[in-house]
Amino acid sequence: MLSVKELSERVNIPYTTAAKYLKALQERGFVRVKREGKRVLYPDETEGILRQLVDLVKSGISFSQALDRLSYGENLVKDPVLEEIRRLRREIEDLKKENRALRELVQMYLSEVKGLPAPKKPWWKRIFGIK
After folding, report:
1. Which helix (H) or strand (E) holds 42?
2. Which of 87, 82, 83 is nearest to 43 (CA)?
3. Can you say how many angstroms the Cα of residue 1 is from the centroid of all Cα atoms in its chain?
């Protein structure tokens, strides 16, 4: 387990930059932290992910684009948990698209149904004259 300071020294970036990047990686689910009192510790494999994020940013890509690339698996260390997260994100995006298409289809059918006559009263209401 590594502290923010140790990670910043290993990756050779300022402490504040490392803290910002690690917080973003934690929020996106790339790393899980362990808290010991006031200390926040990151797993050893965090160094590789942080190094890739730094390399992407140094190559001229914006910070948010670099995070997106990591999210979708570009230039990322192979980790089964992260692979599953990426797969689930792709599946969620596919389901969102399918949901939008189905919602449009339902709206189209509803617009056609609005032109239909009102439904008849049930037979027993018609026979007994109940309103």
Report:
1. strand 39-42
2. 82
3. 25
pTM above 0.70, yes or no: no
User: Which mean pLDDT values do the consecutive 10-residue runs of the chain (131 residues) have?
Assistant: 86 88 84 83 84 84 82 60 78 92 86 71 80 68
- Strand 39-42 relative to strand 34-36, pairing: antiparallel
**Which residue type occupies 50?**
L
Query: In which order are the strands placed within the sheet that holds 39-42?
Result: 2-3, 39-42, 34-36
Q: What does the buried/exposed string (b/e) look like for 73-82 if buried means 16 or more CB atoms within 10 Å of the residue's CB?
A: eeebeebeeb
Nearest to 82 by CA among 7, 35, 34, 28: 28
Q: Using CA atoms, how far apart are residues 10 and 51, in angstroms rounded to an integer?
A: 9
